[in-house]
Amino acid sequence: MLARAGLRAASIFYGLAVAVRNAAYDRGWKRATRVDACVISVGNLTVGGTGKTPAVRYLAAWLAERGYRCVLLSRGYGRDTDSSLNDEARELARRLPDIPHLQGRDRAALARQAIVQCGAQVLVLDDGFQHRRLARDVDLVLIDALQPWGGGHLLPRGKLREPPRSLARATAVIVTRGDALAPDARAQLLADIDRWHPDIPVAVVRERPTEWVDQEGATIALDALPGPWQPFCGIGNPRAFVRTLEGLGKPLLPTIIFPDHHAYTASDWDRIAAMAGTRGAAALVCTEKDLVKAPSADVGGLPLWALRIDWEWLSGRERLEELLENTIGHVTTRGEQGTSGSDAMAADSRHREDEGGAGASPR
Predict the structure, then answer these.
(1) What is the topology classification, in CATH, of domain 30-201+316-350?
(2) Three-state SS annotation for 255-279
(3) Residue closest to 176 by CA, chosen among 246, 221, 260, 241
(4) Above 60 in pLDDT, residue 309?
(5) Do 46 and 161 contact (CB within 8 A), yes or no?
(6) pTM above 0.85, yes or no
């Protein structure tokens, strides 16, 4: 009872802090930094995995196919050092080796760096919906169909980082894992989104497993890996990963779950290998985010494979891509008439907040 009351009180104070900060930006008391590149933010309303990494990967590949110079910007939660890349960035580096990725607390400083040093035309801001200091031209908000509203409560009582009414700031919504809902439940979710932001473009996707990949980059077909499998993961939404594995139809042992962005130690790998061996596993399976932290292509004599997942669009793709094309074209025209990246860097220096150094790690 006391613990519940404490969580309720903490959520109230958290909500007040969020409201004050948003009001400061909405009313111009705090100024967002505008840079001479198109900024596309990918974010969410809840903590936990909503599919931001696949979204960033899709956007970066889509932009590169159209000839735009794209740079990824992210905070870098879970980095070993300020000069290293975290697990998500390392996963993206495997799939998008030609796309620079800068990480650090001060995303506005990273944006200026990306423009000056990399000639960036488009910046993709990973997990940026709450990072309002960097002005953006497109705010994509991802909503996980499995837990769209975070239990209906703000942190720490629930999983909401902001109340649903914050969707009014969004440019478009992408519902991830849309195949998890029955048609009537999906229709209700879309109606809820429309209630918070009428007529906002909404796309629906599902995560589609495509193949297995090992640490050395070798791949095999989904049905080529014998079971039983011993899953483990350190991600924000392990439930979604397990659900995907269950859909592959092979024997599945109980999942070993670690915290999100977990830094695996030698004892962790020993524990995983021991549990898998005791249970009679034929292989260890994990996410690509976990794979980049593995010490080798096998653990305790068992082969280690990560499930590679891509998006499959269920609806809304054409409208979203048209919005992106139009916005990028408009911003490019604006940039040609504005200041250079170096001029913007100098002009904005007086507005920098006390958020710490950039600590960027360009590839």
Answers:
(1) Rossmann fold (3.40.50)
(2) CEECCCCCCCCHHHHHHHHHHHHHH
(3) 241
(4) yes
(5) yes
(6) yes
